[in-house]
Automatic annotation (TrEMBL), chain A:
GO biological process: transmembrane transport
Membrane-spanning segments: 98-121, 133-160, 172-190, 226-252, 272-294
Subcellular localization: Cell membrane
Keywords, sorted A to Z: Cell membrane, Membrane, Transmembrane, Transmembrane helix, Transport
Protein species of origin: Neoroseomonas marina
Chief site of localization: membrane
Domain of life: Bacteria
InterPro entries: BPD_transp_1_N, MetI-like, MetI-like_sf
UniProt name for this protein: ABC transporter permease
Keyword hit for Magnesium: no
Membrane topology of this protein: Multi-pass membrane protein
Any one cellular-component term (Gene Ontology): plasma membrane
Automatic annotation (TrEMBL), chain B:
InterPro entries per record: BP-dependent_transpt_permease, MetI-like, MetI-like_sf, OppC_N
Principal subcellular localization: membrane
Recorded GO CC terms: plasma membrane
Family annotation (CDD domains): TM_PBP2
Domain ABC transmembrane type-1: 86-275
Gene Ontology BP annotations: transmembrane transport
Name of the featured protein: ABC transporter permease
Pfam families xrefs: BPD_transp_1, OppC_N
TM region(s), chain numbering: 20-41, 88-114, 121-143, 149-168, 207-232, 252-274
Species this chain originates from: Neoroseomonas marina
């Protein structure tokens, strides 16, 4: 068990270091950073001045180790545009993004767990096929478009919720629903396949033979076993949702980390972009590590893998 | 390809699957429209007419029979732009699948076939790729390099190979020790022969399922990037860009975003229906 934990942890650290390196390379190999910062109207002298000021004239490996050394300490440098520490900017915006992600995940679970269980219990019937269709519709829905449509219907025509911003709690409802759509298909399918597998196993037959009620069999015996992969995929999906929230935060003008990244991209504020890529990647790595360890704790069969 | 990997009985079963028929009809229709676009558009999709802006579709109140789907905020014919948009979505979808497929399948097959250190490296690359927020990186690269059609294809292709690699790896592992592969080895087949003639054809249908999923994802991501202004550059009529340009007017004339959005949804749904039918036929497990 301990060996599994250590091995899994080492891989996570290695992945994190690789992502750090890629985030650095991203801004260096895909164009001349100084030219991008200076903007289209800058003269050659301006570009040189920026190169000097930001230390971009040093050899690449010096820049890399300098940046890496600071980044592992949580120092992502200074924003060019906001004139503030990048770490402060991200910390200030993180609560909105995390809240949005959790609301989205909660909605996704509330929808997909019952749907998945229902489809498994009625496997092969029209109900099963209908659930499959719902999952597929969720998969085909362009999130930004769904966001705009919901804004028109529920924000403007019905006036139930605010159109944008999260000054009040109900501002999270529409973006949460849109974000949930991205996770519903995979969570529903996984719940369904997990339940089908669980319901076909011997211990369910034993439970039936003992004369337990249908609900008790489904929840206590079936779902408890089907839930193991669902929990870990839910954690991974949360990581994907945080990473994908940039589109939804832009549509609904939620001032979270995604919106910050979007603002910074359009203003060529690369230290911020780099840091957001990194932070979101690190959160994802932590979540998958958590999911794997949880899996191992809940299901001893997986530990040798 | 399909003739080689799908036995006749399965092909017939596919045709009885309503999902497959509907999906094939949608995708086929979009492909034909995309190819024939220059010959079927009633107007030049780039021709601006500032005197006739935001004319509603002909079937709505205040519509003009000259413009079936109305005109946009610059007076361009919406129907013509929608048809050219199908072209962009289809081409991006197909090119991205080819690029990401080449990368992902190569990695996955090598990892699954050789195992050991090579496999460790492949798994590591997949894990790293999955931890990188794709949309954000695509946006950042587009901002740094300046967005263009080719850049969108390249960025999406370089980002969306993970599922190809995962499925190619696991399916290759499943078949590498089967009798017919061993038989090929015994018959003195070269490594290249075994990989291309024994392994690849036998995992091809599983990869076709992945290809549909990735095509759907690529079309959606291109639309999202263009919506955010860093995908296909204006004035090209990408559906995502059409939604983005029209969204200022959506509260007064909702149809301006409904039409391109619905087109996007239907095309992606069609691609997914095709993939789902293939998956049913093959029993490919992609639930993870």
């Amino acid at each position: 068990m301990l060996r599994f934990f250590l091995r899994r942890f080492a891989v996570a650290v290695l992945v994190a270091l690789t992502v750090l390196t890629l985030a650095f390379l991203l801004t260096r190999v895909s164009g001349d950073l100084a030219v991008s910062i200076a903007g289209p109207n800058a003269t050659q002298a301006d570009v040189e001045a920026i190169r000097e000021a930001y230390g971009l004239n040093r050899p690449l490996y010096v820049q890399y180790f300098d940046w890496l050394g600071r980044a592992v300490q949580g120092d992502f440098g200074q924003s060019y545009f906001f004139r503030d520490r990048v770490a402060n900017l991200i910390a200030a915006r993180m609560p909105v993004t995390v809240t949005l992600g959790l609301v989205g995940l909660a909605i996704a679970l509330v929808v997909s767990l019952p749907l998945g269980i229902l489809a498994a219990v009625r496997e092969g019937t029209w109900i099963d096929r209908l659930v499959g269709l719902v999952a597929m519709i969720g998969q085909a829905m362009p999130s930004f478009w769904l966001g705009l449509v919901l804004m028109i219907v529920f924000g403007l025509q019905l006036g139930w919720v605010p159109i944008s911003g999260v000054e009040t709690w109900d501002g999270y409802i529409l973006p949460g629903i849109v974000l949930a759509f991205s996770a519903i298909p995979s969570l529903t399918r996984l719940t369904r396949s997990g339940m089908i597998e669980a319901l076909a196993s011997d211990y369910i037959r034993t439970a039936r033979a003992k004369g337990l009620t249908r609900l008790s069999i489904l929840v206590k015996h079936g779902f408890r076993n089907a839930a193991i992969p669902v929990v870990s995929i839910a954690a991974v999906q949360l990581g994907f949702m945080l990473g994908g929230s940039i589109v939804i935060e832009t549509v609904f003008a939620l001032h979270g980390v995604g919106f910050l990244a979007w603002e910074s991209i359009s203003k060529n504020d690369f230290p911020v972009v780099q840091a957001v890529v990194l932070v979101l990647a690190l959160i994802y790595i932590a979540l998958t590590l958590f999911a794997d360890l949880l899996n191992a704790v809940l299901d001893p069969r997986l530990r040798t893998a | 390809m399909s003739a080689a990997v799908i036995p006749a009985g399965r092909g017939a079963r596919l045709l009885r699957n309503p999902g497959f028929v509907v999906g094939a009809a949608i995708v086929g229709f979009c492909a034909i429209v995309a190819i024939l676009a220059p010959w079927i558009v009633p107007y030049d999709p780039f021709a601006i007419d500032l005197d006739r802006r935001l004319v509603p579709p002909s079937f709505m109140e205040g519509g003009d029979p000259r413009n079936f789907l109305g005109t946009d905020q610059l007076g361009r014919d919406y129907f013509s732009r929608l048809i050219y948009g199908a072209r962009i979505s289809m081409v991006i979808g197909v090119l991205t699948v080819i690029t990401s497929g080449l990368i992902g399948i190569t990695m996955g097959v090598l990892g699954g076939f050789y195992g050991g250190k090579i496999d460790d490296a492949v798994v590591f690359a997949i894990t790293t790729r999955l931890s990188i927020p794709a949309v954000l990186v695509a946006l950042a690269v587009a901002a740094l390099r300046g967005s263009s059609f080719i850049l969108v294809v390249l960025v999406l292709g370089l980002l969306l190979w993970d599922r190809f690699a995962v499925v190619a790896r696991s399916t290759t592992m499943q078949i590498r020790n089967l009798d017919y592969v061993s038989a090929a080895w015994c018959a003195g087949a070269s490594r290249w022969w075994v990989l291309t003639r024994e392994v690849l054809p036998n995992i091809a249908t599983h990869l076709a399922v992945v290809a549909t999923l990735e095509m759907a994802l690529a079309i959606l991501l291109e639309a999202a990037l263009s919506f955010l202004g860093l995908g296909v550059p204006a004035p090209l009529p990408s559906w995502g860009l059409m939604i983005s340009e029209a969204k200022e007017y959506m509260f007064f004339s909702p149809w301006v975003i409904m039409i391109p959005g619905a087109a996007l949804f239907v095309l992606v749904m069609g691609v997914n229906l095709l993939g789902d039918a293939l998956r049913d036929m093959m029993g490919t497990d992609l639930s993870r």
